[in-house]
Amino acid sequence: MPSQLSLVPPPATRRPAPPALVVVAHGSRDPRALSTVRALLDRVRALRPDVPVHLGHIELNAPLLPDTLAALGDTEGVLVPLLLSRGYHVKQDIPDMAAASPARTHLAAPLGPHRLLVDALQARLTEAGWGATPRRTSAVVLAAAGSRDPDAKTDTARTAHLLAARLGVPVLPAYASAATPTVDQAVRTLLARGRRHIALASYFTAPGRFATECAQKAPWIAAAPLGTHPSMAQLLLHRYDEALATRALEAPALATA
Asked: Which segments within 109-153 are labelled E, that is strand?
């Protein structure tokens, strides 16, 4: 009997579920924005079926982030801003909402700057017709929402630099609000430099008022927003994994403090 018992395998231990990935979108009155974000989350789920994926908005759309966090209870989650730079939402709004929640949350970095965003920007420009003119006469305006936070402007400028290195042409950042230069000003600057074929790269996560207004000012071609490009789903998961790795490194230090 003892020998027979020794052959019985031990009961399988169930691996704990990974922390939830909570994608934090800004929110928009444009219905295309919500449908785009939901489709992007479906791409994330397809890439990592084991990770619970939730959506929370800062404003304008349901579910709002506080409601999403309340539904998580006291479980663990990683908040990944569907935002392209640092700014008030990343530094203040999201941390305040997280602090008011019982959920055990970790805040990931915003999406930008990152090479995966440059992959998506280049792909959207190519879809719009980029590459049909000589580089010596071409240039790009990188149109972003804009922020009064200088870190946001630094992040957008970094993305413009990365895109310029990728395309081999000048790329000027421009803003729909709260910062300068505007798209019109950036276009005039590039025209003065002899760049006749000026494309607009849409540095927006989804369609909306600002993206539409900027596209209407494009003197040549205007790319679509980043949307559901595969690089966007990969980047959301990269920021999620990055935040978990940081948490793992910080845990021993906190235990010995």
From this structure: 138-144
